[in-house]
Design a protein that fits this description.
single chain; alpha+beta; Nucleotidyltransferase, domain 5; 3 domains; five-stranded mixed sheet; four-stranded mixed sheet; 9 helices; membrane; protein transport; cell inner membrane; ATPase_NBD
Length: 421
């Protein structure tokens, strides 16, 4: 039989099996609620292939209370409630299925929790019977909402009260005479006050005569007229989550925080690497510029590896030779002409240095061609020399244009005499 909605008050989670008795109610479409009475879960599943199945937990399987909360955004409210539940449950919330409602005007939010593993196991057994549970509620939330006060029912030594659409309470009591349905309190048994075991609220309680379940299973409802009303209450706006571990718990919050820290560290390392790369690139550019400047200032250096050190060495060398300008010109001319002489290997017959000029006499006295002369002059210019070709060979001298001004003045023939004058 197809029903629009089936509601079952479950036995204890550990007792759920095909032959376990449960009370239930159902309605077809928008019709009136019908009470099914106690029946084995196997028969309920066989008779009602419900399009939607809702269950409420036995009072012993779930805790229900209110927690005080400050005004919080939605994304932080869950973490605050889980922290409160962790303190109330005296343990971590990772093993709990926790449901909660909205914060009311008094700053309190309803919250219920049960053991996740036991709930998952019970729901799996119900699915195996053909009952696919879509929503799980705490015990009070199938009860109707009276116009004033609260609505209550007795279940296995528990007074289960619905005090609002999203609020309720469960109170352990001793076996006591059942109050009559519709009364504001327990029946008149010769005492003016209700039994001490029953909860007493400031507002009247409408007790439904549901009775206590016996050890063999739930008893029949003694008043058929009140039986359907047990299932007719509007759904609460919240429920205990079905299927899966809690999300957003304390440990996961730490996981998220650790993940955020790791991401921030990765971004910082990436930024640091980028900054280091830019510094290295800038340093390489400065190094290249220094090499070019040193090469331009001291063209006789064959290779510039450490620009600053080599520049200092050249400066110190020229300073040491400051009192001997002719010796300095000779040393510089010989070093600079080494690259030019390499191109004339096997052709030089003799070399003679005088007056700041190195005269190279070639074998055979054959003058160089125009191309050869241009190539050698270019090579000499790169070495800081001026090259002049004649009929017998070449004359090499330091080129003042290729030297720093101070060195050019020192290495210009006749400069010493002018300075002395």
């Amino acid at each position: 039989m197809k029903t629009g909605l089936l509601r079952i008050a479950l036995p204890r989670l550990g007792e759920i099996r095909p032959d376990a008795l449960a009370v239930f109610g159902w309605r077809a479409g928008a019709g009136a609620w019908q009470d099914g009475g106690p029946a084995p879960l196997r028969e309920i599943a066989a008779r009602f292939g419900a399009m939607r199945v809702e269950v409420c937990l036995h009072p012993e399987d779930a805790s229900l209370t209110d927690v005080s909360l400050p005004p919080l955004p939605e994304k932080r409210r869950r973490a605050a409630i889980l922290a409160e539940v962790e303190a109330l449950a005296l343990g971590e919330v990772e093993g709990l299925a926790v449901g909660f409602g909205a914060r009311n005007d008094d700053g309190a939010a309803p919250v219920a929790w049960t053991e996740q593993d036991r709930l998952d196991g019970a729901l799996a057994r119900l699915r195996a019977m053909g009952l696919n549970v879509r929503a799980v509620y705490a015990a009070p939330f199938f009860l109707p909402l009276p116009d004033a006060g609260s609505c209550g029912v007795l279940v296995d030594g528990w007074a289960v009260l619905r005090t609002g659409r999203d609020a309720g309470l469960m109170h352990a009591v001793h076996a006591a005479p059942f109050p009559e349905a519709g009364a504001g309190g327990p029946p008149d048994d010769g005492n003016d006050a209700p039994p001490a075991a029953l909860p007493v609220l400031s507002e009247p309680i409408q007790w439904l005569d549901a009775g206590l379940r016996q050890a063999a299973g739930p008893t029949a409802l003694s008043s058929p007229s009140d039986a359907p009303s047990r299932w007719a209450g509007p759904c609460a706006a919240w429920s205990i989550p079905v299927g899966g571990r809690q999300r957003g718990g304390g440990r996961q919050n730490w996981t998220r925080a650790a993940g955020a820290c790791a991401l921030a560290a990765a971004v910082w390392v990436a930024g640091l690497n980028l900054y280091a790369y830019r510094l290295a690139h800038h340093g390489q550019a400065i190094q290249a510029h220094m090499r070019d400047r040193v090469k331009a200032a001291f063209p006789d250096l064959p290779v510039v590896v450490n620009p600053l050190q080599q520049a200092r060495q050249q400066r110190d060398a020229w300073s040491a030779l400051g009192d001997d300008p002719d010796g300095a010109r000779f040393s510089r001319t010989i070093r600079a002409s080494a690259a030019v002489i390499d191109n004339l290997a096997g052709q030089v017959q003799s070399m003679r240095y005088a007056g700041g000029e190195l005269v190279l006499t070639l074998r055979g006295g054959k003058p160089a061609s125009a191309d050869e002369a241009a190539a050698l002059a270019q090579r000499a210019s790169e070495a800081g020399l001026a090259a002049t070709a004649d009929a017998s060979g070449w004359t090499l001298r330091l080129d003042p244009q290729a030297m720093p001004p101070a060195l050019a003045a020192r290495n210009t023939p006749g400069a010493t005499a002018k300075e002395a004058g």
